[in-house]
Amino acid sequence: MSRVACIGAGTVGRAWAVVFARAGYDVGLFDAIEGEVERTAIPGARRTLELLAENGLLTEDVDTVVARIKSASSIAEAVTGAIFVQESVREDVAVKREVFTEIAAHAPAEAILASSTSAIPGSEFLTGFPHPERALVVHPVNPPSLIPLVELCGTGVTSPETIAAARQLMTDAGMRPIVLKKEIDGFILNRLQFTLVAEALHLVGEGYCTPEDIDAVLTDGLALRWASIGPFEVAHLNAPDGLQGFVDRLGPMMRQLGAAARTDYNWTPEQIASAHAELSQRVPLDTIAERQAWRDRQILALRQMKLREQNV
Amino acid sequence: MSRVACIGAGTVGRAWAVVFARAGYDVGLFDAIEGEVERTAIPGARRTLELLAENGLLTEDVDTVVARIKSASSIAEAVTGAIFVQESVREDVAVKREVFTEIAAHAPAEAILASSTSAIPGSEFLTGFPHPERALVVHPVNPPSLIPLVELCGTGVTSPETIAAARQLMTDAGMRPIVLKKEIDGFILNRLQFTLVAEALHLVGEGYCTPEDIDAVLTDGLALRWASIGPFEVAHLNAPDGLQGFVDRLGPMMRQLGAAARTDYNWTPEQIASAHAELSQRVPLDTIAERQAWRDRQILALRQMKLREQNV
């Protein structure tokens, strides 16, 4: 079977190893911390695979899949013979440049080189090595083993063939890729997320509501729709005449509320401390791990539900 | 059993009738269009109740519940003896003022008077009648028969007792109320929704991605988390040290992406037409009713899933 390399075996890197291993690839997994892959990354990958299996989202048995993930003792060893390399190291442009120099020196010339970066534009570190047309950002949502969306973004010198091949590989691996037509800070997902969060901080900071109210607006309101139909389709389904009819009626309100949003709100450390105190009442710090496990089960139950309904 | 009145029997009013009837109230339902209640509202309520029953979200049989909804031939008839009145007429301040004058003249003095308005501040039409301290906005998400979140907002003269009683009544009826501490345009849900939509229109309008990409970012990304945990809890669960740790690390990025959002983006009619064309490829106008039914089934399946998981 084809071989994929994952460079960096933290939370994101080990989740990528799960994605590629369950898609049938042999995975070379490397981390700069010696022993980290055997000690925590592969056991962590196994737990994720068990969770997927328990939720009916794994077609093979866990041992078969986990056996495909192999510890590599160097970047060179991990990327040798790989058709695809996914980097998930620290968000530090100097570190990423160094890592990609090493990757590019040892990976096959036709391998696709991808970075998980969420915060650094790919053009700042994906062009300083031979054949930069094969490199792009493939930004996952954490963790990609549970959440299918990935954002593909070229650097300006990335070839259309590279983008098309990465998109196909992601689709075949069960992910849901979108392709950005040009680079923008935060890509799409984090821009939408932190635009909403910024207005939420404004509403809480100015005393209109609490963080708990904001969370309820999502969990018991907006996200009940958005989990199945996105915001454009929500509007399109709002009337027999579709999106156009929606905007004809509600365009003025859309413009008004957009203009009224205060996403540049200058929230203070005291406001964050106060929100943290409220959150820590709801979810005490010593129960976070347990609640994270609950969150992951909820995500998988929702994905199962959606798979069932798609087939109705 | 206690009696509730629903004034206005359009999409929102008839969904409210379902909410109150399934909670055991006798419902007096009035619409200004003669015959509308019998012709479309009660049959529509029956279909919604059947859908709830099919999804295990109704504890009684449909006939029993639907029999509680009775057509009233006037506002006076509907509100006589009611403990709670929910108005859902046209979003026109003059019409609402007139309707509330009539409601206030005939409802018991101790009845709570609520408006479903989403666009007009309650202080503009809920104070010009005797005992305005009993009136408030109870803003549902459409349709309240499927989506539990409701936003309660006083007018400034609304009494704390009224707000507390409305909150309790909503909770007892299976809804999830939040209470705004002061009035703001769009309340919380629509501000968050249209802040995100405004940035989405900016990203699409400036050619970074398509409406379909935006929708995928929600359905296969953000909303897989938000359906169970809201944005504050997402951050709180992101690290062992909770929200404070998240902001310590990612605060600068949060500020940067918030400031970079262009929620005042001046989208053009051509951009809307282009988005409408894309949406109409995905969901042709003549399939909207079918897709709406699918959306409703998805919402109910998700609510069922969440009820199951809460009990794990």
TrEMBL record, chains A, B:
Keyword flag Nucleus: no
InterPro entries in alphabetical order: 3-OHacyl-CoA_DH_NAD-bd (IPR006176), 3HC_DH_C (IPR006108), 6-PGluconate_DH-like_C_sf (IPR008927), 6PGD_dom2 (IPR013328), NAD(P)-bd_dom_sf (IPR036291)
UniProt GO molecular function: L-gulonate 3-dehydrogenase activity; NAD+ binding
Keyword Oxidoreductase among UniProt keywords: yes
Domain 3-hydroxyacyl-CoA dehydrogenase NAD binding stretches: 4-182
Protein keywords: Oxidoreductase
Pfam families, alphabetized: 3HCDH, 3HCDH_N
Top-rank taxon: Bacteria
Family: Belongs to the 3-hydroxyacyl-CoA dehydrogenase family.
Protein name: 3-hydroxyacyl-CoA dehydrogenase
Lineage: Bacteria, Pseudomonadati, Pseudomonadota, Alphaproteobacteria, Hyphomicrobiales
